[in-house]
Structures are given as C-alpha cells and as structure tokens.
Specification:
164 residues; two-stranded antiparallel ribbon; 28% helix; four-stranded antiparallel sheet; 6 helices; alpha+beta
Length: 164
C-alpha cells in the first residue's frame, strides 16, 4: 500500500482533487485515504478517533496594505510564515474542533492552488481513549497543536533533528 503512494495514479488523484476543491474546506472522512500512513501515525478504527480532510491555499501570505499614513519603509507587503503548511492545517482543524485533540496529520495531495491533508483527531473525553494504552497520553494534554507539540509543530520549531 505504501509503494502505491510513492507513485500514485495521477488520473484518479486528479478526479478526487476536483471533487475536494468543490467540497467544504474541512470535511470529516469516514475512513483514511492512506490507511498505512494513518496507522503508522497512531490511527485506530475505534470510537473517539476521527479523520478530517482539510484544504489549504498555496502561495505566499500577504499582509494587508496599511490604509493610513506610513513612511515608505514601513509599507512592506510581504509576510514570512514560519509554520509549514502541515502545521497550519493542523491548527485550523484544532480550532474548528475544540473538543478534540490533534494527534497527527499526513499529506494526501496538491494541485496548482491547494494542498490537501488528512488530520487524525482524538476525543480526549471518550472512555475508549482513556482505557487505550497508546492513546491515553492525549487525555492529559490540552491544546497540543496550538503549543506546537505535534510532529509538524516540533519540526517547525526546529526541535526534530537535534544534534545535542
């Protein structure tokens, strides 16, 4: 299954992305598209674990132009985002679903305009999660994604490949 995603069938992926573009930005999915990837990141087919697909616009982020007086030095329009697209996707899903905790996410496609990710969410108050040995840790952590504790968050903060 993993080998199939290294060279995906471009036609089927293209058709899927056309449908995804027409749908809402954040959509709950019945089952993960890349089951092998989801399982390796901690997904389990049980109550309290859900998968959400998110669409993010590609390209640079621009600051709105100031409407009042500024000297020309302060009129700059570019904005450098320090987060990667994956982290932005996780944060947006985390804001949309405040009762759930973001476990991890993975890439499922990109076209000329958008990136598409699937984000794994865990309900921290579900009894099935509280009794699970691997997912129990998430019940004590609150708002991991906003604190940069997910995989994409630690990478964005420069903590993944430490030489110390």
């Amino acid at each position: 299954m993993r080998e199939a995603w290294k060279k995906p069938d471009k036609e089927t992926l293209r058709k899927r992305m056309i449908e995804w573009r027409k749908s809402d930005v954040i959509v709950r999915v019945d089952k993960p598209l890349r089951l092998d990837r989801a399982k390796s990141l901690g997904y389990k087919a049980k109550k309290g674990v859900t998968v959400v697909r998110i669409r993010i616009g590609r390209g640079g982020r621009k600051k709105t132009r100031p409407r009042k007086g500024r000297r020309t030095k302060r009129m700059t329009n570019k904005k450098v985002v320090k987060m990667n697209y994956k982290e932005i996707a996780e944060r947006r899903v985390g804001k949309k679903h405040p009762n759930m905790e973001v476990l991890n996410s993975y890439w499922i496609g990109k076209d000329g305009v958008n990136y598409f990710y699937e984000v794994i969410l865990v309900d921290r108050s579900a009894p099935e999660i509280k009794s699970d040995k691997e997912l129990k840790f998430i019940t004590t952590k609150k708002n991991r994604v906003m604190r940069g504790l997910t995989s994409a968050g630690t990478k964005g903060r420069g903590l993944r490949n430490s030489t110390v």
